[in-house]
Structure formats: C-alpha cells, structure tokens
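Please decode residue identities from the backbone states below.
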C-alpha cells in the first residue's frame, strides 16, 4: 500500500504505517517498524490553538495532588542521581513544578518550554539528567525532539519521560488519553524498547507511566 508523506512515522520516518483507529474527530495510524501510534498532520492543531489549550492548564506548584503525581518520576530520579546533578526540565509548562521539587532535593535544574520558558541556550549545554513529563505525546516531530534531548544527556546520565503507555487496540478504543486534541503521539513499551535499541541505551520502566532512558557510554546519538 502506498503511503503519502503525511503518513510517514514522525518517530522513525518509516512509511510502513497503516490505519489503526478512527473516532468521531480524527484518525490514528500505527507504524509497523517502531509501533508508534500517531495522528496524521491534517488533524493537528495550529500552534495558536495548541497554546490556547495549554493556557487552560492549572498546574499549581503548591498543589499536593500535582506534586504527588510528579513524585512518580521525581523519586526514582533521586534514587539514581548523584547529589550535585544538573538537569533540565523540558516542556515545563505554565507552572513549573518538577524543577522546584528537584531543586529542593539539592539539584540544579534549568527549564525550557517553547511557550512559557523559551530559553534556547539550554540546548548548548550538557546535563546529568533531562526530564520530559507529559510532553512526548504532544510532539509533532518526536524524532527530532527526542534526539535533541538525548544529545544533551551526559554519558551515564538519564532521560526521564512520563507519558501514558498505549496497550492494545481494545484499550485504545475507550482510552481517555487520546481525547485530548493536543495528544498526537502515543508510545507503547514496544516503542520505547525500539528507542533503546536505536540509541544503544538501557530502558527502565517504572510503574505505569515512567520511562528512564539510561545513556550508556556506547549510546552515540
């Protein structure tokens, strides 16, 4: 079957993609090479529409429920990082919180967000760890963004990701996560395992939605 460029997988750039699901307002494709489920470009929001959605978020750094949510990645990082680690919180959103939690533990943390903390100088640095919490599902070009973040991580460092994982088509049909129009990429364990092989790095799954990519010394991308 011929796929148009619009059907190309945004993670591995393969054209081995096929229909996966369709709901009342958009279609979802799946890549048979890396298993990423993604929404074709024709259904993407504009940047203006995207930001309008994010402006509605009320992520309060003092909210104990939000802090408990972020502790799912904060605690595993604390258990694996040296005391003086320097990190980057990518996609921190309008209410940076994880960076504050990590700073309270003694780490130095820079922040970046294309809408709310546009600090391009962070991409000229190297970090012991980089975090992206509830970010990868929004990426229009996950290949570029993940490679860019991975390159910032020092050898033996960690790229920490939080995202809900796709399980199977039956679960996807009624999955609340796909109903957010800004969610356009859906990763599964298989997708992250593919990333681990591609980056020559170790993948560690923690709980239902935390993925730590350990940059081994041979990881070269």
């Amino acid at each position: 079957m011929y796929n148009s460029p619009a059907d190309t997988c945004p993670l591995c750039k393969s054209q081995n993609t096929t229909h996966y699901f369709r709901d009342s307002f958009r279609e979802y494709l799946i890549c048979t090479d890396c298993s990423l489920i993604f929404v074709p470009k024709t259904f993407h929001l504009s940047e203006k529409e995207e930001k309008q959605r994010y402006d509605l978020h009320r992520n309060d750094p003092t909210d104990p429920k939000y802090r408990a949510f972020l502790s799912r990645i904060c605690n595993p990082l604390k258990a694996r990082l040296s005391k003086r680690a320097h990190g980057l919180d990518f996609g921190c959103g309008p209410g940076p919180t994880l960076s504050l939690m990590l700073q309270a533990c003694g780490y130095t943390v820079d922040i970046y967000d294309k809408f709310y903390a546009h600090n391009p100088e962070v991409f000229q640095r190297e970090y012991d760890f980089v975090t992206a919490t509830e970010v990868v599902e929004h990426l229009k070009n996950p290949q570029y963004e993940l490679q860019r973040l991975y390159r910032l991580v020092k050898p033996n460092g960690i790229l920490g990701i939080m995202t809900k994982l796709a399980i199977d088509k039956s679960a996807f049909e009624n999955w609340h996560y796909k109903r957010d129009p800004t969610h356009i990429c859906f990763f599964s364990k298989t997708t992250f395992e593919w990333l681990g092989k591609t980056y020559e790095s170790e993948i560690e799954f923690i709980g239902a939605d935390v993925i730590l990519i350990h940059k081994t010394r041979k990881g070269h991308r």
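Observation: Strands lie at 17-22, 27-31, 37-38, 86-90, 108-112, 127-133, 153-162, 185-186, 202-206, 210-214.
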